[in-house]
Specification:
With 366 residues, the protein is an alpha+beta fold. The chain contains ten helices and 20 strands. Helix content is 27%, strand content 35%.
Length: 366
């Protein structure tokens, strides 16, 4: 029997929602890929079972199938008997993959098919315990990448230098080739996808948490993308206030002076705690503050806001941004819907001059 014959039969080896015969099988493209890349003597493994299991038997592979449903295994074996398909090299582990894989003694796999349970965190566990057992040059097939867990695993591996995308069958299946050993157990900051997702998660409000671990060029790239995106969105947002136009209403502490200059507003402070009260009151809606500021030294800017529950400026209701010598530009999100009252900016934590060249606030709740 060949693959074409198997596809014509269309075996229904699973059971549907109402217990009816059904086939939850991989696509024809994936079966064709397995047919082309697996041969007699190949060592293979899959989580899940079905038509693909029959194909591995047809190809004469030394195949290990991990599946928790014993009735499903009996149906596969019965189908193979009825069609004279040898199952001598077929081995079943009737258990959930997350229990079997950690204690499994198998090495040098040529191909792994992850197509078992798709609920979190099973696909990640299947990958973790099978990836190191896959030989360099071996292939990994991830099915059901249209499901979030499969999609995340796919995106993770696309960024990993130890894996190469072999072929993609969107939106459902992807195939990778393993390029080197040591693919599991890396520190999170050595995994590009984790780093980028963490930047996206924490930026901009918690950017200081990233600085010790993330290369500066990645943070700079994120900041540039954010500024560009903000510029594209700006015209679509209903309310954008240029606070520099309200310069005469700014309030500063007694140790700070301010003057309007050609390219912005210059603040000169003799104090290590300069403070600026902005002439803009929050009203319980999400806001974006865009600021461009020049500093003479390394320091940090701190934005304070009040809330209904905390009517004073506190560290808890503040956002810090690192300032570098010369030019800085960033966007600060004020996500608290309970924010009220005037905003306060402390432009630095050292005496000196600070030039604010851009100061815009946008209501993103409109």
């Amino acid at each position: 029997m060949k693959l074409d014959d198997l596809l014509k039969i269309q075996p229904k080896l699973h059971r549907g929602p109402k217990g009816e015969p059904y086939s939850w099988r991989v696509s024809d493209d994936v079966l064709s890929f397995i047919d082309r890349h697996v041969s007699e003597g190949s060592t293979t493994l899959e989580t899940g079972a079905g038509v693909s299991t029959v194909l591995f038997a047809l190809k004469g592979a030394h195949h290990l199938c991990i599946v928790p449903d014993e009735e499903e295994v009996l149906r596969i074996k019965a189908f193979c008997r009825e069609h004279d398909i040898c199952t001598d090299k077929l081995k079943f582990e009737i258990e959930r993959s997350e229990y079997i894989l950690p204690r499994l003694e198998v090495e040098g796999l040529d191909l792994v098919l992850i197509d078992g349970a798709h609920g979190f965190p099973i696909p990640f566990i299947d990958w973790h315990y099978s990836a190191e057992r896959l030989k360099v040059g071996g292939m990994l097939i991830i099915d059901d990448t249209q499901v979030w867990t499969g999609h995340v695993l796919k995106m993770f591996l696309l960024a990993e230098p130890e894996w190469r995308l072999e072929t993609d069958y969107p939106p459902r299946t992807v195939v990778f080739t393993k390029l080197k050993d040591g693919v599991c157990g890396k520190n999170e900051w050595a995994q590009p996808y984790i780093v980028q997702q963490t930047i996206d998660l924490l930026y901009p409000n918690y950017i200081d948490m990233l600085k010790p671990y993330v290369p500066p060029d990645l943070l700079l790239a994120k900041e540039r993308r954010t500024v560009e995106m903000f510029g594209k969105r700006r015209e679509k947002l209903t309310i954008v206030v240029n606070l520099l136009d309200l310069y005469e209403k700014f309030q500063v502490d007694e140790d700070t002076t301010m003057s309007k200059v050609k390219n912005g507003i210059l603040f000169d402070s003799k104090s290590a705690d300069p403070q600026i009260l902005l002439p803009y009151s929050l009203c319980g809606r999400n806001k974006l503050l865009r600021i461009a500021i020049d500093s003479a030294c390394d320091t940090y800017l701190q934005l304070y806001y009040k809330t209904v529950d905390t009517p004073n400026y506190t560290e808890q209701n503040s956002i810090k941004r690192k300032l570098f010598p010369e030019k800085n530009e960033f966007i600060i999100s004020i996500p608290d819907n309970n924010a009220i009252g005037q905003l306060r900016i402390d432009p630095g934590a050292t005496p000196g001059k600070y030039l604010i060249k851009l100061l815009e606030i946008t209501d993103i709740g409109i």
